[in-house]
Design a protein that fits this description.
Oligomer: single chain
Strand content: 5-15%
Number of helices: 29
Largest sheet: 9 strands, mixed
Strand order of the largest sheet: 3-2-1-4-5-7-6-8-9
Structural class: alpha/beta
Length: about 900
């Protein structure tokens, strides 16, 4: 097996899953409390016995696998000793190796055998607990009795089935539930490494024998000495491989046991989501590592290729670099970072010491390779994941040692394990990172902190957020990942040379979260060095997490250059690299400006408001079918039925209606029994609410909970729109059409306002500062509209803009059967409508005096500058406490 190409993710298929599922009959409840208590105790004992038996079974399998491997080695070595591999004293060496391997095989076989009594004891205990369950639950006596009778004869099989049932692993099934898969992957990696070690040892011994034969056939002592030196190198590799194989056997057993234990403890399907864990693909890890450190290090290497002093400086620098991942999970980021650094070190060693390959086999790589896993630190709240992170780094170290052996002919031994990564099992938000790695000794902070939105945080996570943001008002809107940014900002204050890079949900760079988080970071002198704008995250976990992320690299030093990676419409692609002057919290090349939430616009334009919220349990809303049925029985209801538009109905032309009974008299309402019944249902729904304000609305159940309906024509803006559209569709509506709380309204808006909001400048502004729902654009009045800087056009410019707005409406009108979704789909947008928008952009750009590129980035930079000029003359909307955060 070529371990150089081996990856942890691919190894899962190599892991033999040991059992198939079996479902035990569930006891039925009994009204007898004593019997029920006895049943519970018996069931607990049954579960404990099954678990112990299953763990013992996994131990037995691990020891047996190690024994079989060692036995194979012993048999092959013994065969080599007596069948031709007998040149220059190697026969005795082969026999000695065979004896050592046989001893290992015997020890592991004995350990495997020692598990049998444990399984038998578990089977006996399980049988007894089954019988106790039968006595306590007469309703299921027959089925449980059958299970109890079979328990004694199949204790080991039932124990294995119990573990299988907990983990969700079926025989031959390549996937597993929850984070168990990460531990099974590590077990598979260890097993694959052991297989590779066996092959490596045998191949090296074979090469050593050939070297000895060549030495014997040489005609002069110099030739013989060269071949014997090569013989010693190959024997060294073989001995190291055999020793590493023996050492790896317990690691395999541990990984499998951790998998079983983790499954039993984390069997709930929501565990991963609750922790906010999204396991990371190598592609995305390299998106972090490249601009964080590896790009600079590779540039440094390229510049030093022809300078021995500069190569020596880089060679001396690499073993001084230290990394900490404060949410390390199973160690993915640390593993890839260590691998990339070892490969770079090999390149440096090649140029600095190998003399063009002439010294192959003679370099002492065990001393020349100075990078160590002890340079890598991590904090992880899941104890099992922390354990696997250590194992994964050790396995990667061994893989890199094999790569060095292939390249230089020698390597450093993997075992004994003299260096260990510093992985701490702890809550990173309640831990002083300086106790894990003093910041004065740290080079880089990196990782993928948990993604948990404010509404999905559990009680412990909310408490952690409260601790970190104790002195920041408005922090309740923040995603859980934001806490790592604040902790990192505090950590690097003691060493401004540290660079940081985190993968994060894109929400912390959009909408209301920017104002809640970034003032604290900016006051801490944080500067963004590089950033990947919104892209779709892919990972190597069981279920690919459908999340949209950003990567932000930052520090305290003034960046020599800033780099943005923009994904445009292709959020699954590789992104376009853009050189920037300054990257602000919205990940835009613009000054560090933070949009505060405002109740009114910064300029004299019509105000924007939410639509009306029914808060009715659905009883005031009608489908077309419900409307028709109601009018059949109560035609007098027609005057109270209005068209009702949310974002979906507006964009997709979906018919929906509501009962809008503002001004209805009691007599009119009572004259419509079906409408009256619906009103009664609304009252019941509101009274059941736990919110006092909703309960108060039960006094007027025939009205919407919140009435914000304009009494004049208004401009309707959907609150959410697809990211595929270049323009968020908006349109004029009469006051008789009721706007739902899922749209925004601008009463008194004119063609001028319609055209401005339909411009590329405004939509670029939305894409930069607005929030997102998944990847869809989320429009808000308080952030997007109220902070938008409007132009100050001349009368002629205003007239041109209004004409352009009318042309957009005219182009839409040419397709009366099309929905706005049809008209604004990039693939189906009519040519007339596209030309109308282009003309509108020219008119709007002229009013602003904008002469830059059509792309979003320069447009947004222009608008940020204008925003700064406009708001510098305004009082702050509201004083907020942005004092330094206590950590």
């Amino acid at each position: 097996m070529n371990l150089k190409k081996f990856t942890l993710a691919a190894a899962l298929a190599a892991l033999p899953l040991l059992a198939s599922a079996q479902t035990y009959p569930a006891p039925a409840p009994t009204p007898d409390p004593t019997a029920q208590q006895s049943l519970g105790a018996s069931a607990n004992q049954n579960s404990t016995s099954a678990y112990n038996g299953g763990m013992s079974y996994y131990n037995q399998q691990a020891y047996q696998a190690a024994s079989n491997t060692a036995q194979d080695i012993s048999n092959q070595d013994a065969s080599n000793s007596g069948s031709g591999y007998d040149g220059i004293g190697t026969s005795d060496a082969w026999q000695q190796a065979a004896d050592q391997a046989q001893s290992v095989a015997n020890d592991n076989q004995a350990q495997a055998g020692a598990q049998i009594p444990v399984q038998q004891q578990a089977a006996t205990s399980q049988s007894a607990s089954y019988n106790a369950e039968v006595s306590a639950a007469p309703a299921v006596a027959q089925s449980n009795n059958s299970a109890a009778q079979s328990a004694a004869s199949s204790g080991a099989a039932q124990s294995t089935a119990s573990i299988t049932q907990s983990t969700g692993v079926q025989q031959g099934q390549p996937t597993v539930t929850n984070n168990t898969g990460e531990y099974l992957i590590a077990g598979a990696a260890t097993q694959a490494a052991m297989n590779g070690l066996t092959t490596t040892g045998f191949t090296a011994n074979k090469a050593a024998y050939q070297d000895a034969q060549n030495a014997a056939s040489c005609g002069n002592p110099w030739c013989a000495a060269g071949w014997m030196a090569a013989n010693a190198v190959e024997q060294n590799i073989a001995n190291g491989a055999y020793a590493a194989n023996v050492a790896a056997a317990p690691v395999l057993g541990t990984a499998l046991n951790v998998a079983a234990a983790a499954s039993a403890l984390n069997s709930a399907k929501g565990t991963r989501r609750e922790l906010g864990a999204h396991y990371t693909s190598e592609r995305n890890i390299l998106r972090v590592l490249g601009p964080l450190c590896m790009d600079d290090l590779r540039d440094e290497f390229a510049a030093a290729r022809h300078s021995k002093p500069r190569l020596q400086a880089l060679y001396d620098k690499l073993p001084t670099l230290t990394f900490i991942d404060p949410a390390c999970g199973c160690g993915n980021f640390l593993v890839i970072a260590y691998r990339e650094l070892r490969r770079l070190e090999n390149e440096v060693i090649e140029l600095l010491f190998s003399k063009g390959g002439q010294t192959r086999g003679l370099l002492d790589v065990s001393t020349l390779s100075r990078l160590r896993v002890s340079q890598f630190h991590g904090i992880e709240i899941d104890e099992s994941a922390a354990h696997i992170a250590r194992v994964a780094l050790w396995i990667t170290d061994h893989q890199m040692n094999l790569e060095a052996a292939e390249r230089f002919g020698t390597t450093r031994p993997t075992v004994p394990l003299v260096d260990s990564p510093h992985i701490h099992h702890a809550n990173a938000l309640r831990t002083d990172w300086a106790e894990v790695l003093p910041p004065e000794q740290c080079s880089y902070v990196l990782g993928n902190p948990p993604f948990v939105g404010k509404s999905n945080q559990n009680a412990e996570q909310k408490a952690d957020m409260a601790r970190v943001f104790a002195k920041v008002k408005g922090a309740g809107v923040l995603d859980f990942v934001a806490a790592w940014y604040v902790k990192a900002a505090a950590y690097i204050q003691r060493n401004p040379a540290i660079d940081v890079a985190f993968v994060s949900t894109n929400s912390i760079t959009q909408g209301e979260q920017v104002a809640a988080l970034w003032p604290t970071l900016l006051q801490a002198r944080v500067k963004i060095r590089f950033a990947h704008r919104t892209f779709q995250w892919s990972n190597e976990g069981k279920g690919i997490a459908a999340v949209h992320c950003v990567i932000i690299g930052f520090g305290l030093r003034e960046p020599q250059h800033c780099t943005l990676f923009d994904y445009g419409d292709d959020i699954k692609g590789d992104g376009q690299r853009i050189t920037a002057k300054c990257i602000n919290p919205y990940l835009v090349d613009a000054p560090d400006v933070v949009m505060t939430s405002r109740r009114t616009p910064i300029q004299n334009v019509p105000e924007m408001a939410f639509g009306s919220m029914p808060n009715d349990g659905g009883y005031l809303l009608l489908t077309p079918e419900e409307r028709a049925a109601l009018l059949d029985t109560e035609p007098q209801a027609e005057k109270w039925i209005h068209q009702y538009l949310g974002a979906d109905e507006f964009i997709n032309k979906l018919p929906r209606y509501c009962l809008w009974m503002v001004g209805i008299s009691p007599a009119e309402l009572r004259a419509m029994p079906e409408v009256y019944r619906r009103v009664q249902a609304v009252k019941a729904v509101r009274l059941k609410s736990t919110r006092p304000t909703t309960q108060e609305l039960a006094a007027t159940p025939y009205l919407f909970g919140e009435n914000r309906q304009p009494d004049t024509p208004y401009l309707l803006v959907p609150s959410v729109s697809s990211e595929r559209r270049e323009f968020v569709p908006i349109g004029f509506m009469p006051p008789e059409v009721i706007a739902s709380n899922l749209v925004l309204t601008i009463p008194g808006a004119t063609l001028y306002h319609f055209a401005l909001l339909n411009s590329t400048l405004h939509n670029a502004w939305l894409r930069a500062v607005g929030g997102r729902l998944e990847s869809r654009y989320r429009y808000s009045a308080s952030i997007v509209y109220n902070n938008f800087p409007w132009p100050e056009p001349t009368a002629a410019q205003r007239e041109a803009i209004e004409a352009a707005g009318q042309a957009i409406l005219d182009a839409r009108a040419r397709y009366p059967d099309a929905t706005l979704a049809d008209l604004y789909d990039p693939l189906t947008m009519p040519a007339e409508l596209r030309r109308a928008h282009q003309a509108n952009d020219r008119a709007v750009d002229a009013a602003y005096g904008y002469k830059g590129d059509r792309a979003d980035a320069p447009r947004v930079a222009f608008l940020f500058s204008l925003y700064q000029r406009l708001t510098s003359l305004l009082p702050p909307p509201k004083k907020q406490d942005r004092r330094e955060v206590a950590i």
